[in-house]
């Protein structure tokens, strides 16, 4: 039997051990882990900072990075497209033909050329040729049509349009051409099959390039283009109205390319890119980033889940750029009993759902997935280096203190979609786990217009006096939350937007199109969750004019109207007919309850309909069809 002194000593030792273990679990271990994460990010940050300072001092532009790789790897394959290999030297000579022709036409630095092309080598050498002589490519979304296409062309004020030979795109352009004041249109034959221009007055660009000189263009022209000058316009997805042309300066484009070093992409890599070039991800992360290091890019006109792994193996791909929906489609297509062999060592992109992340990575044995976050016009960039499932990046208090361009998650007003303020008029940071609106500090040297057009468009994206008097922050419009390790996760788009199949959809845009129809009094558009799909599917609640009962012809008119004026992903998949619209006290449409009810006919007494693309109309949504959609027996 132990004496009292021994018992007391044992008890004290036990208590000390318990306290020590508790301290380790609750304080020391998390501190050690976060210190490790911080030190790793600081090391990476210093590398990026050094490179960014070199970019700023050098006053380089987009042509500088291309010329650097051209001088190092002239005969190396820069781009693979439909089995054909194109070297850096060949792309350069074709770009020179483009630039020399534009100079011969008397075009001058700062003139804008609208680019209405699908993914192809022609896209790349065309914009390189334009940029080399100081022209500004304005990259049109080839899914946009009707009024949206007219707006996108007119707002950038182009001297000409370079368009694809694709018959559907030509028809879209032909349909709106009477509103374009006879802007010259050049047609590029980017398809193996010859498609003649639908308009005789349109000009065959291939014939012009065949006779244009490929002699090197005077380097003084490119050297005279300042790094703060506009390199190109890339359009927003129109989540707050019509698409806006974002001003991408040369220095901003170069900063994006620096990411290659963070991802450890080198000249030995072969990157697979199926994302559209009219978007920042497809063009910069999926193409120019690779040019920066002399890598090879396999370019696809569009994504195909059925040929994905076939291409990966055929071209010895080592890296893939993705959006979340791409990964979802590849996973859904996969035969679980078939083992996929490949050389892919990394995938990078945005939107990979937390629900499929681990399954996707384990199923296909992808060593590293880098999830990125950023906006074309924004100043907030995040990257998840750690294979942390679902995270889009990490931002600890220490890292934010060291970063001049600080970022904060702040509380927001559900009705106004603006930050909430405390008694001193400052924004209120959120707690761990609480969703907050992401704001990014605008530094004076980077305080430039966001969009081409009225100053008010850019001003609307800024928030002032956020943390101190006189400061200025960019409002991303995105809701994020952090965990105890300061990893950040995407929650949702604030306000009247939702994401479907990689596109941010403006509910106001869709509603305005539907309201064109003379039998619809009002439309309330929102996104609803569909099992097995990322993002939200578009649904429209409709109020009809008194005495209207929708006929089959009217349903077809509704379908045709949406298809004609909206990109395909924005066309509502479900309809709900309501006698009265629910409005808030400030006469705003109520969406939350509608979103919660979804499209379930067992809980909704209103008439429901679903889209049938094969019949080009909307049909009644029965409980049986509802089950088929949920169990993926019917395709949306």
Gist of the model:
This protein is α/β, with parallel strands linked by helices and 636 residues long. 36% of the residues lie in helices and 22% in strands.
Topology:
Layout lengths: L3 H55 L3 H11 L4 E5 L2 E4 H17 L7 E5 L4 H12 L3 E4 L6 H11 L3 E5 L2 H10 L8 E4 L14 E2 H7 L7 H5 L6 E6 L9 E5 H8 L1 H4 L7 E4 L6 H14 L2 E4 L8 H7 L4 E5 H10 L12 E5 L6 H8 L3 E6 L8 E3 L8 E2 L2 H6 L4 E4 L25 E6 L13 H5 L2 E3 L7 E11 L4 E7 L3 E4 L2 E4 H8 L5 E9 L8 E8 L7 H14 L8 E4 L14 H6 L9 E6 L4 E4 L2 H8 L6
Parallel strand pairs: 1-11, 3-4, 3-5, 4-8, 5-6, 6-7, 10-11, 10-12, 12-13, 13-14, 25-26
Antiparallel strand pairs: 1-2, 8-9, 14-15, 16-21, 17-18, 18-20, 19-20, 20-21, 22-23, 24-25, 26-27, 27-28
Catalytic activity: tetracosanoate + ATP + CoA = tetracosanoyl-CoA + AMP + diphosphate; a very long-chain fatty acid + ATP + CoA = a very long-chain fatty acyl-CoA + AMP + diphosphate
Family: Belongs to the ATP-dependent AMP-binding enzyme family.
GO molecular function, one term: long-chain fatty acid-CoA ligase activity
User: Based on DSSP secondary structure assignment, what is the total number of beta strands?
Assistant: 28
Give the strand order, joined by hyphens, for the main sheet.
Answer: 2-1-11-10-12-13-14-15
First-residue to last-residue Cα separation: 76 Å
Assembly status: single chain
CATH superfamily of the domain at 87-250: ANL, N-terminal domain
Task: Tally the helices.
Answer: 20
Could you characterize what this model shows?
This protein is an alpha/beta fold and 636 residues long. It contains 20 helices and 28 strands. The termini are far apart.
